[in-house]
Amino acid sequence: LLPNEKIRQELVEHLKQSGIGTRKFYPPIHKLSPYQNIDGDFRNTDEASERGLWLPSSSFLLDEDILRVCDTIKNFWN
């Protein structure tokens, strides 16, 4: 999870500029229409959805692809 939604979006843009696609986490299940009437405290799922980020993943990724994603993320934090 990223520290906040703003930093997540900055990282998304940084990766995009390097040709690396990402996507946000799925919306929390409790916000989907079949489950909206369920009472409870779901702040952790909300937070994960707001701060989470899917990185490229596939059985077809090569080691150099993975290293490029990792290096690009490291570069973002430096």
UniProtKB/TrEMBL annotation:
InterPro entries: DegT/StrS_aminotransferase (IPR000653), PyrdxlP-dep_Trfase (IPR015424), PyrdxlP-dep_Trfase_small (IPR015422). It holds the Pfam family DegT_DnrJ_EryC1. This is DegT/DnrJ/EryC1/StrS aminotransferase family protein.
